Amino acid sequence: MKRNPITSPSFNFKHLSYGFFTRNNGFSEGIFSSLNCSIISSDQVSNVLKNRKKITDTFGREAEDIIIPRQKHTNKCQIIGSKIPKIINADALVTTRKNIILSVLTADCAPILLYEKQEKIIAAIHAGWKGAKSGIIQNTIKEIIKLGGSSMNIAAIIGPCIQQDSYEVGKEFYSNFQLEKDQNHQMFSKKNEKYLFDLPQYCTSILKNCGIKTVNNMGICTFENEDNFFSYRRSIKKGEKDYGRQANAIMLQN
What family does the entry list (predicted)? Predict the structure, then answer.
């Protein structure tokens, strides 16, 4: 993939900049090669900071203009107002501010970007199965509504993440989702006594159930595309001690 960041013609709006970054064209080495943006990885901090600067440079902003929360697979969403906390423990960010980059980091989990077109509200969501199941998507939409937005005016895009063919889970995982809702069986297929989970479809169903009509799914697999994306599952399979995370970012501009 030569483009970095990746965008979609189906998610293109005036006064909006966004992108799903690959792992390429950065400063990190080894298993973190090369655009690793995770400060909590065992990568050299100096390299991570230079990589993050590449993200802000893409948006024409300074290093202090990007907000990346500490993600813990929770359902917590943080509104970014005039005062920005030094440390943000959350898995989603929402703002009406211009020229502030909201970013979440992923390595198989689904990055979801939202744009409320009427009130000009943006959001970035880190949605792994835990966060999605516990309500991170719904909570983010609730915060958008608190700011005066409407789900009817929200456009959503799901970026590169692990796709169903690569997401093998056990029977207990499947049963856990079945207990939540009978229709969740549609999120699984079965292969050799194992189940394959469709994370982007699950996220799409939640978004649509919240009243969002426009949901774009890029359908790009992080696990299968080693040359372009970090993957937690792939790192475990290869026996690596750590892994990098790619950035996914969105910004309102003047």
Answer: Belongs to the purine nucleoside phosphorylase YfiH/LACC1 family.
Q: Which residues of 6-24 are buried (b: 16+ CB within 10 A; e: fewer)?
A: beeeebeeeebbbbbbbbb
Range of the domain at 124: 16-162+214-252
Q: Which two tokens stand for residue 52?
A: 């993050």
HSE (side-chain half, CA atoms, 13 Å) at 46: 1
Query: 110 CB contacts (<8 Å, ≥6 apart)?
Result: 125, 126, 127, 128, 132, 158, 159, 161, 199, 200, 203
Beta bridge partners of 158: 112, 217
Q: pLDDT, tens digit, for every residue of 30-71?
A: 999 999 999 999 999 999 999 999 999 999 999 999 999 999
Is the per-residue pLDDT at 3 higher than 90? no
pTM as predicted:
0.98
For residue 12, pLDDT beyond 70: yes
Residue 39 sits in a domain of what CATH number? 3.60.140.10
